[in-house]
Design goal:
There is one protein chain. The strands form 8 sheets. Strands 10, 11, 12, 13, 15, 17, 18 and 21 form an 8-stranded mixed beta sheet that branches. Helix content is 29%, strand content 20%. The protein is globular and about 65 Å long. It starts with a helix and ends in a 17-residue tail after the last helix. By secondary structure, it is an alpha/beta fold. A hairpin with a 5-residue loop joins strand 6 and strand 7 (159-163).
Length: 574
Amino acid sequence: MFSSKYFFILAILLPEIIAIPFSKDERVFLEVDHDIEQWQSAGWKLTHRVFNERVRLAFAIKHQNIAKLEEIFWSVSDPKSEEYGRHLNIKEINNLVKPTDESMNVVKSWLQEGGVDSKHCNETMNSDYIICEISSVIAEILLNGARLYRFHHKTTSKSVIRSITHYSVPREVAKHLDFVGGLLRFPALNTLKSSKRSGADFVHVGVYPAVLRSRYNVSNTVGMYPNNSQAVAQFLEQHYNPNDLKEFFAIFGRGFKHHSDVTKVVGPNSGRSGIEASLDVQYIMSLGANIPTWFWSTAGRHESQEPFLEWIIAIGNMSEVPNVFSVSYGDNEDSLSVDYMNRINVEFMKAGVRGITILFASGDNGAGCHKNKFRPNFPCSSPYVTAVGGTAFNNPFGIDGEYGYEISGGGFSNVFKRPSYQESAVNYYLQNSGKLPNASLYSKTGRGYPDISAVCNHFWIVNNLVPVPGVMGTSASTPTVAGIISLVNDMRLQNNKSPMGFINPFLYSNMKSLYDPTSGYNEGCGEPDRGFYAFVGWDPVTGCGTPNYPALVEAALKLGGNSPHGHDHRLLTI
């Protein structure tokens, strides 16, 4: 037998001395634009080399017919289209974009010849991802160039295994593979932000369901359609406590009908409740009151698991999922590869074509700042999701108006071009606002975000049976907006119409159905430390504005869309 010393030496040398048939081909590096050293600025500390530990990798096989998928996505989402609301079911979508037999055979053969046991692999419903648990030694042989190390986060107990170098695959395989998950990206450890303001801003009596329902004219409206649904997505062991939820509604749930229990829990939910999870579930169930709610938890316990990737894969692998998702998650756009983001955008399109609305918090760092430039976030910079920014009340004792709050994430993508649905609104802002930052700080041609906003500070929650005041962040505004969109869906469903699905084209064509905060700014770079200013219409602080529920319902009910009771299958021509 080998001694441990010789085993370690062999493990280091194996990638160089063992060859597999595919390795004779010229190799191609994937995700080469990924910032390989982004872990340093994110608080991760490299500890030691990994030897023969198990890693979990997701091999993203290339889809087909993406152009057709996008064509359908826009047609079912555009209020001006005759196809609006004619969503497809998961089987129809899978038949459209499922990888070719050639792609699946090439990737599977490569894995098998590389020593990966198929018994330790699982395929998604349409075989677009193969997820395998393999030894780190085999992973480094298979993905030449990768060097796996263990990392610990300096302020949390989190530990992950990641590569400190880029990886390559044979050219023949690269034709059929978008990326390999579990190698480069680190979990985004989002935390709720505390206020830096002082004075009168601190004497606000606080925000709770009755305040929000009054401000956004929800009044005592609650969901009535039995098959409607909504969800919050949580990552990295953020859990909620059912007793907290009951206590929250005992204190703040008077005046409107509501559920006091989550309808369905997907994934783990044990241990001490987290402020993020408590906030999200308590407020989506307060605004989207009486609507069945899912708590969707992706643990991220496995060393190489990418929780966000696992979650979006799971959505595309389940035939029945909620109509609306509230997601308080984001990462720096410049820390992710374009290949990865484009593939995630395909997952967003698949969700939108199914009629699913996905709302992301726009982040709590304003326009961001990195290397003297603004720093956009992803996924909120994706053109295929709805980004939610944050506002605050003009009067700390009243609810008569809002301004753009300094933490509200907003700006322009450096990767994705501006989509047509916001072209007119964003151009108006750029040409008329008069308070634009220096042009070198951002991309004027990029996708602008957020798309919508809501109050984001001084929220009351109940956490571990203790009422907690002063919680803030776009993590608060996102479930607020999500619950209101769920109520709009409810009214459409009651009128035999489809759910809204991707709502951005609707929002930008119905901006008069929103309140329009026109003052305030978000944080940025330089002196003064400011990013963008709120303005009439759309702006990169408050988006198109904040919800006015009755006006949104009135506009939504004028739209077409097939009845969900009898799915209108369309003939797909490719």
